[in-house]
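Input record (Table S2, row 252):
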Amino acid sequence: MGQETIVLLSHRELDKMRQAGRFAAELLQRLEPLVKPGVSTLELNDQVERWTQEYGAKSAPLGYHGFPKSICTSVNEVVCHGIPSAKQVLKDGDIINIDVTPIVNGYYGDTSKTFFVGQPSPTAKKLVEVTKECLSRGIAEVKPGARIGDIGAAIQEYAEAQGFSVVQDFVGHGVGRDFHTPPQVPHYGKRGKGLRLRPGMVFTIEPMINEGTWEVKVLADKWTAVTKDRKLSAQFEHTLAVTEEGVEILTL
Ligand code: MF3
Ligand code: CO
Ligand code: CO
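Output record (cobalt (II) ion complex):
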């Protein structure tokens, strides 16, 4: 992907992204008390859709390449793109990634986090904590002049040192006036390689970290991606802007 295809956002556009990002973060915050044993993933979806409409925003996933719902709900061995369903009721010990992307005044805010449902197992707790730290370490690499490969390297080094693996089939992405744009942001890689970061670039970092194998499989519904060994997977995502000073997290 040539550098010339990367969109740089103006200060005015970054302000719009801040608004979208803040609302996306607020959706996850408001969900927190609802993520309890007994709730279905469809109820979570419908609540986010109501809040989004109230705000005058739109849910980007709904109808995106045919995706049928407003959010992604990825439980336990589901890596990403889980489809909310009335039949899927959360139970004590589950982990669930909820990924929201509202469109606010034409700009996309993309963020996700993994929640504990009730009491997590020690393994689940460690995986989720390590995945959150992977996102932090990736973000810490972002500044003008750094390379895309620095982000992936930082994430991969930490995840593997903790005994976990990094999903390769799904990557972070440019985001702004569109949902998914260049550059691709792998969560693995080599320091000093890849695109050089410049102020005004806006992209996500969204590591998916697995308990066992990094390999994934997409189910017959064409969306739900699961770990090949059906062990746990966790994910955290923020939308970020490269600034003159370093990095701004837009989805806080
Ligand atoms: N929000 C996801 C991401 O982080 C994309 C979901 S696309 C959908 O890029 F169609 F599955 F909703
Ligand atoms: Co994303
Ligand atoms: Co997302």
